[in-house]
Amino acid sequence: DVKVTQSSRYLVKRTGEKVFLECVQDMDHENMFWYRQDPGLGLRLIYFSYDVKMKEKGDIPEGYSVSREKKERFSLILESASTNQTSMYLCASSLRTAYSNQPQHFGDGTRLSIL
Amino acid sequence: AQKITQTQPGMFVQEKEAVTLDCTYDTSDPSYGLFWYKQPSSGEMIFLIYQGSYDQQNATEGRYSLNFQKARKSANLVISASQLGDSAMYFCAMREVPNAGGTSYGKLTFGQGTILTVHP
């Protein structure tokens, strides 16, 4: 089974702090994704990566950056945390393929609170 | 641009009955994939079922089936014989497929979600 592991289930940080969310997958997937989930808004894509050191902005990249130095690891960085970044963050991975039937596999999520 | 709409913020069903969760989508791509995910209160996203835009038959996976009506751009999830463990948030999502020669990054567009509550 695909395993996507997020480093923390719950995290509390203070405004202005630099925050790192880590995600590791063990299935040699090329694609990795970071989403945030807010009530009534579903999942919104922050950034994704299709290869090592490659990254693309999603729908809501402002205030975030990412790093992918190794294929299995994709980090989300909040450069200067703000209260409006309090949310559930979900990491996912998938195979790179021309076919549409490959699902994304998700981690358990990190509930981040910025005080 | 793609769009997914789930119009039911919450649904209730009696245990052992069937329930339909609605999903409509909008895309200009001729080829796409539709997914349903389940998210229990613990937070993890569980992949349930997939339907390709060119699939002739509706997808089924155990108690889950997808009522795919391409002309109406709807992909409703049907859960038969509901169980208490089915209580969760359910998300519909769409993946676009690039034209021949393109590379798909597997991006998904998600709906707002529907909270399903199964009563004993």
Low-confidence runs of chain B: none
Most extensive interface, chain pair and sizes = A-B, 34 and 33 residues
Largest sheet of chain A: 7 strands, mixed
In round numbers, the mean pLDDT of chain A is 93
Structural class of chain A: mainly beta
Estimated helix fraction of chain B: under 10%
Percentage beta strand of chain B: over 45%
Explain what you see:
The complex is a heterodimer of chains A (115) and B (120). Chain A is mainly beta and 115 residues long. Helix content of chain A is 0%, strand content 56%. In chain A, strands 2, 4, 5, 6, 9, 10 and 11 form a 7-stranded mixed beta sheet that branches. In chain A, strands 1-3-8-7 form a 4-stranded antiparallel beta sheet, with no helix packed on it. In chain A, β4 (31-38) and β5 form a beta hairpin. The radius of gyration of chain A is 13 Å and the shape is globular. The N and C termini of chain A lie far apart (37 Å). The mean pLDDT of chain A is 93. Chain B is an all-beta fold. Chain B contains no helices and 12 strands. In chain B, strands 2, 5, 6, 10, 11 and 12 form a 6-stranded mixed beta sheet that branches. A 4-stranded antiparallel beta sheet of chain B has the order 3-9-8-7, with no helix packed on it. In chain B, strands 1-4 form a two-stranded antiparallel ribbon. Chains A and B meet through β4, β5, β9 and β10 of A and β5, β6 and β10 of B.
Features:
heterodimer, A: 115 residues, mainly beta, 7-stranded mixed sheet, 4-stranded antiparallel sheet, 11 strands, 0% helix, 56% strand, globular, B: 120 residues, 6-stranded mixed sheet, 12 strands, 51% strand
Give the structure's gist in a few sentences.
By secondary structure, chain A is mainly β. Chain A has strands at residues 4-6, 10-13, 19-25, 31-38, 42-51, 54-57, 64-70, 73-78, 87-94, 105-106, 110-114.
